[in-house]
Amino acid sequence: MRSVSKHFGPTVANDAVDFAASWGEVHALIGENGAGKSTLMSILAGLYRPDAGTLGVAGEPVRFRSPRDAIRHGVGMVYQHFMLVEPFTVAENVLLGARDRGVVLDTRSVEADLSRLGERYGLAVDPRAPVWHLGVGERQRVEVLRLLLLGARILVFDEPTAVLTPQEARSLIATLRALAAEGFCVVFISHKLDEVLAVADRITVMRRGRVAATTTPAETDRRALARMMVGRELAAFVEHPAEEPHETVPAGNVALRVRGLRARGDNGLEALAGVDLEVRAGETLGIAGVAGNGQRELAETIVGLRPTAGGSVHIGGRDLTDKGCSAVARTGVAHIPEDRLATGLVGSLDVSENAILRDYRRPPLARGPFLVGRAVAAFTDRLIHGHDVKTPSRWAKVRTLSGGNQQKLLLARELAGDPAVIVAVHPTRGVDIGATEAIHGSLRAQRCRGAATLLIGEDLDELLALCDRIAVLYEGRVVGELPARGADLERLGLLMAGIQEATASGATAADRPPVVLRG
Amino acid sequence: MEQVFTVGFLVAVLAAAIAAGSAILFACLGELLAERSGVLNLGVEGMMLIGALAGVAATLGTGNPWLGAGAAILAGAGMASIHALLAVGLKANQVVSGLALTLFGGGLSAFLGQRYVGLPLPASFGREPVPLLADLPLFGPILFRQDPLVYLSYALVPALWFFVYKTRAGLRLRALGERPEAADAMGIDVDRLRASYVVVGGALAGLGGAAISLGTNPGWTEGMTAGRGWIAVALVIFAGWNPARAALGAWLFGGVEAGQFRLQGAGVDISPFFLGMLPYLFTIVVLVLATRPGARHRLGAPAALGLPYQREERG
């Protein structure tokens, strides 16, 4: 890829980027969120068209107008959100993109091909299983198998290990190495520096839409990579998060108590199957688990957005089961939802309107039915300055802010009233490192102040760094809980995979074969 | 009263049910294709009306009902291409576009149809018993003494069932409605295919209109589809987007329609206004039930139904 540029409106996502990867290598692409990695790879995969620049595959110049062109030239991408049709079987998903397979659905020949390839690359998966039955790891294998069957020789992975348990990630990495050994070109996007250093043959670092450096693991280390990514030193990367000392705050009274909580998911199936939790004032409880095991439903049920199907939620001693989200919010519960632009902020409203969404009914912001302009402005300024939200003005539409600044604004609003309980779901998802640091700082400060925090996370490092205890959610149940300090990653991983007899020591757990997830 | 329900009466009602149901069936199968591809088309009623009128006009002009049916197909497809342009090409709200087309089709057909009102057709689809099959006991008179369009509808049901569930094109169709981004990533041109299915669906709705104006009730009267398009929309949901079940539903409603006349003829007193209201009532109830939270999934609705597809672009 040569001097590739891509703009989204006024934002420059890629600015004259040169990128090259060779056959037979695993090439890691790292950078902060918003550095342009995904955009660059989406251009390579034909999803976006570059505004300028040229692409070449195997020495020949190519122009991709759609993913179809890219696949035809042997370029395939495994997206972060899998591109699978859930009600279809594995074989049907593969057939969807296949050419030369006749008019009539012929699943049998595909099933045979799948088994053959699966064996060869350690990607075993049942070709007749409907995709919605499969765990995340298996779905990812389906994506890889499909690309291989379509004849892809260049495979791009967008943060492939972010959604996997440590065991699954190890298995995937072995597959990546095997593919490279056979001459495939493997590019993978990541933000996990340890993983990149362990797997990659070469590493390209992107920063603000440009290539900051290309290096090899032998020539660099964590610290140097982090510096290249952000352009400055960062506390979070100098110390390993897991070793960070937890200041002990004397545990207070139980602020949030959840008993036997049941709820249904959007699909009508049981998503929570009796969850028991307790969070004390000044304590942070982390919820770990592979995505889709009831995390979202747990948060929504606690804050009153989703009706319960049994069990109870007590906040500060009061029974708030099914009392609705405004009652819960009035009790002093802050909610940082999973999708900030869907349930946290209103993208088409401006910063100050979003800032007051929680408290607009009460004085001093409101006097009777009217909003008090001066108070609104003062309140907004306080949030903006207090949490270092970078915005052109109070009147900027929230949609135009970066993800990190949106999240900081949301956090500022939710934490403004010094809530007794904080329910935070993936608070740093899609947020750059600088904002992540700031958000972590805010959450730590709240903990010291005495807030009880329920932190639902997907990044184990983040949970280990912020939490006192970590509970693992699997198929709507808490399958285990352990103190965050000195927590055994292996054991966490096995719990996330639903293996409860994980009381064995870390050493034996590490020797087990990779876990296959089944829904 | 006892003499009303003889075997002969039932056979006559069932035969009439199938004849009346074929119009709904064509429209319903067309809507099924569009919805499977992820596009809701509420303009079916308007497309049926335009099709019915085009069928009458072409038959009057040429004297050949087959050319009339062809004109109905083209007219329905033409109307649907407006929906394809608005709802697929320009990503407009599918509900608004569809409703607008129903209103447009109703008004336009009433306006253009003024001079055709009450004109007798030179030819229409008459009953053409199938040799041998027509002589079967019970089934013969019910199924095989119908007009040719009804036979066509018989053929269409298994053909579409096979297409949707057993062919690669059908797999792509279902993927469009379930997860267009997955289809896109697999190199399928989402908008072009969706637009094609909307147009084909409109063509079938037009043919459904012709099944009325050239078959069961030859000639043109304003608003002659009388809500059958709406029944078709509701039936797609009722049938769980399955062509075979759509056929059963269409014949059931054909039965309601046919039974109404026969019962009145036999002296049973049901208000025609009540019966005339049924299609709309049925549609409203089905749509309300189908749009309740969680219901989409339980009914097996295509997950992306009603959602325009746009590649994720930030801005």
- Structural class assignment of chain B: mainly alpha
- Rg over C-alpha atoms of chain B, rounded to the nearest angstrom: 20 Å
Please outline the major beta sheet of chain A. Answer: 6 strands, mixed
Compute the number of structural domains of chain B.
Answer: 1
What is the helical fraction of chain A, as a range of percent?
25-40%
The number of distinct helices of chain A, counting runs of at least 4 residues, comes to 19
Largest sheet of chain B: none
The shape of chain B is globular
Could you name the CATH class of chain B?
Mainly Alpha
The CATH architecture designation of chain B is: Orthogonal Bundle
C-alpha-based Rg of chain A, rounded: 24 Å
Helix coverage percent of chain B: 55-70%
By CATH, the architecture of the largest domain in chain A is named 3-Layer(aba) Sandwich
Tell me the span between the first and last alpha carbons of chain A. Answer: 40 Å
Largest protein-protein interface = A-B, 35 and 30 residues
Gross geometry of chain A: globular
| Unreliable residue runs of chain A | 235-245, 502-519
CATH fold call of the largest domain in chain A: Rossmann fold
Percentage of residues in strands of chain A: 15-25%
Concise summary:
The complex is a heterodimer of chains A (519) and B (315). Chain A has 519 residues and is α/β, with parallel strands linked by helices.
